[in-house]
């Protein structure tokens, strides 16, 4: 056990540490001599009150093994997640532990992205359904505040004749005299956002002299401020403002999303304002969706799970192959989205497996084969991605029925997934992987050809090899 990569410890029947291997010591971030012979509560005061300890007591009492996902706060305040398997042994309990921190953080990331896509979708619906500017402004602002996790917000519109910013919608305020507030272009924070046509962020409103609506600090208790210009066709239409009552922790992703939302709000307003064509609106909405999806696929590359540019390359190749097969524009759009997100389910697989420089064991394969199912679980929650699900769900099915997750055969495999499988294997073989260097063009070509009728749909493969490569 000393040499296992998994943490491994033995707890005695009177709850003392009897044994810890090196991996467990590393995870505990405590010297071995501070743990051995001590009880768990001497080492971690308060541990008896945790759900994890209650589970361990059950193992001790019932002599049944359990599996626990444990969130753990180190003395320095950082948080880690561990997957524990505890089982009874004659001396007490044997616990195996695996660091699951990066997987958990990635899943939080995914949940946030889901929420953002949902927000965009809701704003999209409001835009296409609405006719009345004040109704649409209200709905859109509501979704913006929820999607961006802030306390309050306003939409200010610029009157092009008086050059004054007037409140068109507000949400999350205690009082309603915000309604009477008017700022002239260039005055106050909102006036500057509109005049300079750029986003302004203020962490501490109280100490910012540009902020003129001081009563909002006192009565409303606002502390941080974000203002983005509402721009359409190069013209400033107004300002989207967000307020928060505590300092807001925001990252670049949040800021980018804020600007995307501001872009949507501007579209909503200019659409209603000018009765501009619905087509242009939809085009820009699609661009906003696709930027979000691309950002999501990039999280795989950031974790080194995918080689640089893999998602983008397979998306373009899928497009070429499907075009050669005369797919319609609508189908192409869904296939592009599916291709972009095909391996998103790998976010749910531990790094120890994904980045393993060696071949996988049987149990590791069992986990790896779940990535299409995880992708399906994640993406099926988003309505507009449902038509793009076939590729993430079925890209590892094989023509002869020996693939996963369902072992579908031949034409029972959705055609988009049969198309994509060829492209994916091609690009995977041509890329470096932790477990092998990239293959040559010729070797990869031969491998694909050898997979005709076992792995791949022979007719589609022919088109790929002859017309696309
Ligand atoms: P991936 O690296 O994106 O590979 C996608 C598919 O391309 C694979 O699906 C397989 O059909 C094909 N492929 C990629 N590399 C090779 C190769 O060296 N030889 C052959 N014959 N085919 C290859 P598959 O097999 O279902 O694997 C799914 C995912 O599992 C892979 O995605 C990769 O993340 C992981 N994986 C597969 N084999 C290993 C391995 O030996 N070690 C590790 N650490 N991971 C592996
Ligand atoms: C497998 O072992 O099932 C496939 C390995 C690979 O294709 O790389
Ligand atoms: C399709 O053409 O997309 C489905 C029919 C097939 O399974 O080939
Ligand atoms: C198709 O029907 O083949 C394209 C849409 C998709 O399932 O991804
Ligand atoms: Fe895959
Ligand atoms: Fe892939």
Helix proportion: 40-55%
Principal-axis shape equals flat
Which molecules are bound in this entry?
A: ligand C2E, succinic acid, fe (iii) ion
Tally of contiguous helical segments = 18
* Low-confidence runs: 274-281
Characterization of the model:
This protein has 469 residues and is of the alpha+beta class. It has 18 helices and eleven strands. Strand 6 and strand 7 form a beta hairpin. Helix 10 packs antiparallel against helix 11 and helix 10 crosses helix 16. The structure holds ligand C2E, succinic acid (3 copies) and fe (iii) ion (2 copies). One fe (iii) ion binds next to helix 16.
Protein topology:
Layout: E1 7-12, E2 17-20, H1 22-28, H2 40-43, H3 51-62, E3 66-73, E4 79-89, E5 92-99, H4 101-129, H5 133-147, E6 152-159, E7 164-171, E8 182-184, H6 188-196, E9 200-202, H7 215-218, E10 224-232, E11 235-244, H8 252-274, H9 278-302, H10 310-324, H11 329-340, H12 351-354, H13 362-368, H14 371-379, H15 390-394, H16 415-429, H17 441-450, H18 458-468
Antiparallel strand pairs: 1-2, 1-5, 3-4, 4-5, 6-7, 6-11, 7-8, 9-10, 10-11
Helix pairs in contact: 4-5, 4-8, 4-9, 5-8, 8-9, 10-11, 10-16, 10-18
The chain binds ligand C2E, succinic acid (3 copies) and fe (iii) ion (2 copies).
Summary keywords:
469 residues, alpha+beta, 6-stranded antiparallel beta sheet, 5-stranded antiparallel beta sheet, 46% helix, flat, binds ligand C2E, binds fe (iii) ion
């Amino acid at each position: 056990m000393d040499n296992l990569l998994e943490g491994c410890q033995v707890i005695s029947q009177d709850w003392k540490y009897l044994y810890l291997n090196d991996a467990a010591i590393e995870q505990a971030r405590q010297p071995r001599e501070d743990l051995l012979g001590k009880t768990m509560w001497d080492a971690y005061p308060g541990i008896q009150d945790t759900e994890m300890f209650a589970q361990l007591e059950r193992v001790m009492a019932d002599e049944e093994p359990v599996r626990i996902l444990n969130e753990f706060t180190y003395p320095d305040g950082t948080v880690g997640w561990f997957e524990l398997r505890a089982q009874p042994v004659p001396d007490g309990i044997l616990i195996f532990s695996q660091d699951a921190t990066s997987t958990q953080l990635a899943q939080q990331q995914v949940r946030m992205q889901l929420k953002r896509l949902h927000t965009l979708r809701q704003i999209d619906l409001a835009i296409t359904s609405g006719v009345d500017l004040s109704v649409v402004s209200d709905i859109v602002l509501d979704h913006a505040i929820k999607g961006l996790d802030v306390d309050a917000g306003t939409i200010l519109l610029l009157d092009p004749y008086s050059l004054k910013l007037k409140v068109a919608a507000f949400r999350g305020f205690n009082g309603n005299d915000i309604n009477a507030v008017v700022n002239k272009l260039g005055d106050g924070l909102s006036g500057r956002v509109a005049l300079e046509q750029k986003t302004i962020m203020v962490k501490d409103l109280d100490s910012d002299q540009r902020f003129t609506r001081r009563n909002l600090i006192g009565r409303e208790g606002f502390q941080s401020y974000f203002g983005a210009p509402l721009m359409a066709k190069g013209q400033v239409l107004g300002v989207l403002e967000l307020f928060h009552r505590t300092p807001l922790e925001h990252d670049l992703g949040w800021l980018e999303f804020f600007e995307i939302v501001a872009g949507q709000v501007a579209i909503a307003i200019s659409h209603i304002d000018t009765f501009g064509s619905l087509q242009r609106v939809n085009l820009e909405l699609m661009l906003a969706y696709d930027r979000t999806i691309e950002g999501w696929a990039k999280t795989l590359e950031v974790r080194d799970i995918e080689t640089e540019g893999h998602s983008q390359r397979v998306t373009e190749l899928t497009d070429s192959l499907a075009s050669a097969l005369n797919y319609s524009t609508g189908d192409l759009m869904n296939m592009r989205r599916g291709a972009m997100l095909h391996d998103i389910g790998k976010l749910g697989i531990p790094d120890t497996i994904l980045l393993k420089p060696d071949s996988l064991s049987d149990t590791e394969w069992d986990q790896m084969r779940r990535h299409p199912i995880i992708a399906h679980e994640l993406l099926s929650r988003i309505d507009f991605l449902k038509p793009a699900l076939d590729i993430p769900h079925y890209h590892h099915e094989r023509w002869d029925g020996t693939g996963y997750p369902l072992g579908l055969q031949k034409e029972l495999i959705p055609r988009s997934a049969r198309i994509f499988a060829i492209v994916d294997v091609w690009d995977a073989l041509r890329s470096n992987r932790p477990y092998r260097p990239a293959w040559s063009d010729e070797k990869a070509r031969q491998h694909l050809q050898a997979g005709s009728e076992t792995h791949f749909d022979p007719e589609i493969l022919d088109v790929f090899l002859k017309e696309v490569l």
